[in-house]
Predict the structure.
Amino acid sequence: MGDVRSVGELLEGKARALYTVEAEDPVRTAIGLMAQHHVGALPVLRGSELAGIVSERDYARKVVLLGRNSLETAVWQIMSSPVITVTPDDRARHCMELMTAKRIRHLPVVESGTLVGMISIGDCVRAVIEAQQHEIDALKRYIAS
């Protein structure tokens, strides 16, 4: 099958805005940002360092189900850490396999130690489907010729 796009290429096709939350922020801040920007997870920073990732799933399981208060609970208390990351050179298919194996839906993209973006399982699925469609189209052209 044809090669699937790189993470860097996926990021080029996305909005450039990268939303993050600080580890010490209240969980309510993170949930508000996710709702405002229509994203399911946020990278968590301590200063400029990537400390973890927090998702709607973390909120549901570690705040709501445990009866915690989202204004009194800090993001670092519910975030997933250490965080699994990828680089712009990784391929979308590899990322999709990684997310499936680790049962996660979002991957921060890190280049030379700096957070440069986020990709989701949806981004990877779209890239794989696109690659498959290009291959199908090429095979159809070959058969028709």
In short: The CA atoms of residues 27 and 75 lie 5 Å apart. The helical segments are 7-12, 27-37, 56-64, 92-102, 121-144. Residues 7-144 form a domain with the CBS-domain fold (CATH 3.10.580.10). The longest helix spans residues 121-144.
